[in-house]
Amino acid sequence: MARRTDFLVIGSGIAGLSLALKLSSLGEVLIVTKKRAPEGATALAQGGIACVISEDDSFELHIEDTLRAGDGLCRRETVELVVRQAPERIRELVELGVEFSRDPGDPRRFELGLEGGHSRRRILHVEDHTGREIEKVLLERVRENPNIEILEGHLAVDLITTGKIGRASGKNRILGAYVMEWSTRRIETFLARMVVLATGGAGKVYLYTSNPDTATGDGVALAVRAGARAANLEFVQFHPTCLYHPRAKNFLISEALRGEGARLLDPEGRPFMHKYDPRGELAPRDIVARAIDMELKRSGADHVWLDITHRPADFVRERFPYIYETCLRFGIDITREPIPVVPAAHYLCGGVRTDLYGETDIPGLFAVGECACTGLHGANRLASNSLLEALVFAHQAALRIRERWPEWRGWSFPEVPDWDPGGAVDMEEKVLISHNWDAIRRLMWNYVGIVRSLDRLELARRRLEFIAREVEDHYWRYLLTPEFVELRNLCQVARLIVASALSRRESRGAHYLREFPEKDPSFQRETVVSREALRL
Q1: For the segment 128-150, what is each residue's pLDDT rounded down to a tens digit?
Q2: How do residues 227-266 score in pLDDT, each as one tens digit?
Q3: Partners of 160 in the β-ladder
Q4: What is the pTM of this model?
């Protein structure tokens, strides 16, 4: 029997939790998350949230910094909306219980950090573990709320729409989702009047990433299969500085270190960023990541160095306690020695295309957070704008849903069939999953990375098409497992990224194409893809 709720939120990061709290006054909210609730990317965010609050700053400056980083592809109305809403969204977090770090010289003021691409100090933070603190507070408020339920260990397999079940009269409308319980592999039918995708990014499509294991592009794959469009997927931002250590799986070294004076050094210990950009270490991430990539290719080394040893040791330990303690566990004292770092896939600047209220092409289906393309980031995200975007668009989606609620709360659901496995049988050899998982990630890292070429992109397209055929064949022959559902999503998102990259014959933001190293004004538009790109 189908389970019914008013609002189904898929994902438990800052975007999904914020929106759930805002919707709880309207009706019943059900949050499904495939692992434990705090295990998404929000809890890993170190830097903070960009917000104009100092006297020497202005909305206009933050807007221009964002547009400049986005390299001509930001939607200006989105940028202005997000920047101008920031102070109110920060006030809401403070009221919920988030305690941002205060200025040691004046505890009445917030301590503001500086990061690459920003012309002023405007990054509010909780030491160097901002996301973890925000996630903790939001989860506490959600778990206190009687109208919100969280189901951990539940993975969305596919969205249910009127078109999919053959009941479309007019425009395709969302009905809910088929959801798998991770431990039992049982697939249940969840019906909802409105569905929100808040599934995070797709970093695991690459071999090396700062993202958690949950970042398999689920939201983008779910939405595109259901008939929504995605945009700007070629713009995968590589964070310049992840810790290079055999036992460090995906530990990020925050850009805030460079904001406080940390310098990048080549393998011989020499500064090099001045050769690539007059802003040096404070250039936008796409420029810094490409500079490091070029230095590594020039030298043949495995990593470069990030050095903050010239700052007082007490300052470093107090400003960056989480980074200091984590590096120390790996035998690196960042107050005495430089940190070995490499770029890694970090943030999906594109995603499911939405309007100014987070709504997709499918009525009743919303996307918020990293899985969405709102137009804020353009071709390259400005540092510390991501948590802000999640907060603002959770608010925007709540406004639209509240507006439509009087009409939609009385809507009658059509008959929806339960999940039918047909004649599928158990997959006996799990190596089919692990082999293709590894093949996709290596292929994307080697051929669709920081610097791209048409030959390598075309090779990636052909090889991914071959893998996709095998995955789709297995999808219908074998009973689904969580790992296989993630593999299918990963494969589809990889194909969409490659299709988008092949269609953009220029270099802009996070997309650098060797054959076309300059920007082309004719490509100053979003790259839009649909499920047609997934047909074999």
Answers
A1: 789 899 999 999 999 999 999 99
A2: 999 999 999 999 899 999 988 877 889 888 998 999 999 9
A3: 176
A4: 0.92
What is d(CA 242, CA 249) in angstroms, rounded to the nearest whole number? 10
pLDDT at 419: 92
Residue linked to tokens 């309007």: 355
Q: Which of 285, 441, 452, 495 is catalytic?
A: 285
Task: Report in angstroms the alpha-carbon separations of 464 from 209, 460, 492.
Answer: 20, 6, 9
Residue pair 268/295 in contact (Cβ under 8 Å)? The answer is: no
Helices (H), 261-320: 285-299, 313-319
- Which runs of E-coded beta strand occur in 1-43? 3-10, 29-33
Pick the CATH number of 431-517+524-534 from 3.90.45.10, 1.20.58.100, 1.10.3860.10, 1.20.1560.10: 1.20.58.100
Indicate the domain borders of the chain.
243-343, 431-517+524-534
Catalytic residue status for 120:
no
Q: Which fold has domain 243-343?
A: Flavocytochrome C3; Chain A, domain 1 (3.90.700)
Give me the residue label for tokens 């071959």.
466
Distance of CA 351 to the CA centre of its chain: 9
